[in-house]
Amino acid sequence: MSVDTRPPASVAAAAPTKSSESGMVGSSRNGHWWLYVILVLALVVVIAPFVWMVLGSFKGEGELRQIPPTWWPQQASLDNYTQLFSRLSFGTYFLNSTIVAVVVTAGNLLFCSMLGYALAMLEFRGKRFIFVAVMTTLMIPGVVTFVPLFVLVANVGLVDTLPGLFLPFLVAPFGVFLMRQFILGLPKDLLDAGRVDGAGELRIFRQIILPLCGPALATLGILTFLGSWNNFLWPLVVAQSETNYTLPVALALYSTGQNSTNYGLLLAGATVVIIPILVVFLVFQRRFIEGIATTGIK
Amino acid sequence: MSTSTAATAVPAPPGGSSNPPVKPAASKAGRREARAAWILAIPFCVLFFMFTAWPVVQSLFMSFTDTTSRDLKAPFDVDFIGFDNFTKALEDPVFRKAAINTVYFVLVGMPLTLALALAAAVALDKGITRFRSVFRLGFYIPVITSVVAVAVVWRFLLQDPGGLINSALGWVGITGPNWLGDPNWSMPSLIMMASWRNFGTGMIIFLAGLQGVPQSLHEAAAIDGAGAWQRFRHVTLPLLKPTMLFVSVTTAIGYLQFFEEPFVMTQGGPLNSTISVSMYTYNQFGFGNYGLASAMSYLIFIVIAVVTAIQFRLLRERT
Q1: How confident is the model at residue A107 (pLDDT cuts 50, 70, 90)?
Q2: SS in 3 state form for chain A?
Q3: Is A196 an interface residue toward B (CB < 8 Å)?
Q4: Between the CA of residue B284 and those of A232, B262, B295, what are the distances in Å?
Q5: What SS3 state is found at B190?
């Protein structure tokens, strides 16, 4: 950790001598070789836990208990994974996580873009009130609402069901915020052009506005899917029988319960949670990072 | 980011000029527009009211009642007990310990995360020219992973005899502590993991912020003889202040609710040294003390609201 804290001061300290020599600031030099060394070391520290996790998931129990720990598996096997999917039902948990994430993402894309469009481009009574109400709840954390939410879900008999897992998350203030910001940036002439052509209001939204929202929808979709996949507190509260566990719930309960010392199994479980999202991330990484930067600043 | 702001600036005049002429004749069209708007707004509003707005209000209501799991069927058929839940929470030594732990987590974890994020961002922005996107991508990877999953992995990494971290420390002659087993080291262990996982978000936001620092200012300062450290201190840092405020507040808000780390890695132990307010709230909920749990979650909420208010205040003062 201490290695990582060094760069800012030292970057700053070393940059001037060289740039004053060349008489230019921010010239097209490739940077300092030692900075690359530090960054590569930092990158190793950041990535190593994942590499160790994946390699460890192929090791047997005996090897995982060796001191000092091994890096490469001595005898690689898929035993942990076969156990995960046969003895424990990680297939079911995987499916539950996927269903919940897909439904939650679809709901947010649809409902948040609808309201976002109405708030950005249409005039109606109550618009200001809705906007203020949604924005004030932007920062309210799940830990504040989970108790009454549980009572509500229990009263309609949805505890320990998949709808109970996804219904409360179908809409989120963040999505409205993002979509409204984006649609505000579209030319309002589009609306008038559509009306002149005789298109109904809803058709303008569906056929003119929505197709232009691609980048915002992609950002919202990715962030929502990710948030849902990693969500923990609510599924922990609502999913009570194993058939309704999501991946993080199953992993957390196994790791603190009867399988807490079954190292190989837990590492394989963590791999199953992390790798799919990592693949999604690597495919869409540009969108991801732009999304964070945009929503972060705005 | 830049495209969206540019776009908002450009279309405003045409939209503004074409709208007013339509308005007078538009009472019917206006009604049609309003009806369409409400059709678009209603699904969100219904779900939002049911699952966000109402629970926020009901949570406040419950925090003043003696609701328990036995009152599940009739949540309004309960007794008001005033501030009893709040005083009970604040007098509970375990809750106090949880509050102290949470403050510890925020006050140490937030600056550490911020420092790592800023260091990485400055190094990538000014220090190197090649492989930037590789480093950016790599440093960001932990952010997208499930806290539960990385907590499981880190529990093994931090094991006292035989963990990867203590073995690595052993190679350079350091005897590592019993990270998760020693009450003095358990909290630093969780903070270390949280900073490792979260600094990527701050880094990305700082990188965007650094792009807003005009190169000409740096050049002007350099011509005036300012060294790189001075330029960082007197040019970059002041211009980065709003970004820094934003990153610190969002990080603090996230850390105020930390839950998965102790749940998976320590179960709040040893000796309650890592129990957090969120975790204790969850435990009380598990015991069926819904009123008490609501009061505790509102205490977290109040702190978050105060932190957010301070941010808005500071941002307004600056602009």
Answers
A1: very high
A2: CHHHHCHHHHHHHHHHHHHHHHCCCCCCCCECHHHHHHHHHHHHHHHHHHHHHHHHCCCCHHHHCCCCCCCCCCCCCCHHHHHHHHCCCHHHHHHHHHHHHHHHHHHHHHHHHHHHHHHHHCCCCCHHHHHHHHHHCCCCCHHHHHHHHHHHHHHCCCCCCHHHHHHHHCCCHHHHHHHHHHHHCCCCHHHHHHHHCCCCHHHHHHHHHHHHCHHHHHHHHHHHHHHHHHCCHHHHHHCCCHHHCCHHHHHHHHHHCCCCCCHHHHHHHHHHHHHHHHHHHHHHHHHHHHHHHHHHHC
A3: no
A4: 17, 16, 11
A5: helix
ipTM of the complex: 0.84
Q: Is B162 on the interface with A (CB under 8 A)?
A: yes
pLDDT digit string, tens, across residues A139-185: 788 888 999 999 999 989 999 999 999 999 999 999 999 999 899 98
Task: State both tokens at B218.
Answer: 């740096």
* B52–A140 CB contact, under 8 Å: yes
Best CA proximity match to A226, nearest among A267, A167, A160, A287: A287
- Residue B130's pLDDT is 83
CB contact (8 A) between residue A255 and residue B155: yes
Q: Are A184 and A63 found together in one domain?
A: no
Contact B59 A145 (CB under 8 A): yes
N-terminal to C-terminal alpha carbon distance within chain B: 20
**Contact between B278 and A143 (Cβ < 8 Å):** yes
Evaluate whether B210 touches B3 at the Cβ level (below 8 Å). no
Overall size of chain B counted in residues: 319
Q: Which residue among B47, B53, B135 places its CB closest to the CB of A111?
A: B47
Rounded to whole angstroms, how far apart are CA atoms B38 and B190? 47
- Encoded tokens for B9: 């600036």
How many domains does the structure of chain A reveal?
Answer: 2
The CATH number covering residue A170 comes to 1.10.3720.10
List the 52-111 stretch of B: residues with Cβ below 8 A of A.
52-56, 58-59, 62, 67, 72-73, 75
Considering the domain boundaries, does residue B51 fall inside one? yes
The CA distance from A128 to A143, in Å, is: 27
Indicate whether A13 pLDDT > 60: no
Among B283, B307, B306, which residue's Cα sits nearest to residue B97?
B283
Determine contact: A56 vs chain B, CB below 8 A.
yes
In a domain, B259, yes or no: yes
Residues 134-153 of B with CB under 8 A from A: 135-142, 144-150, 152-153
Residue A283 tokens, joined? 């495919």
Query: In this structure, are B44 and B124 located in the same domain?
Result: no
Query: How many residue pairs from chains A and B have C-beta atoms closer than 8 A?
Result: 389
How many other CB atoms are found less than 10 A from the CB of residue B74? 10
Q: Examine the domain organization and report whether B202 and B313 are in the same domain.
A: yes
Q: What is the mean pLDDT of chain B?
A: 86
Structure tokens, B96: 């106090």
Instruction: Indicate if the pLDDT at residue B4 is higher than 50.
Output: no
A65 with B162: Cβ contact below 8 A: yes
Q: Where are the beta strands (DSSP E) in chain B?
A: none
The Cα–Cα gap between B244 and B237 comes to 9
Whether B29 and B103 map to the same domain: the answer is: no
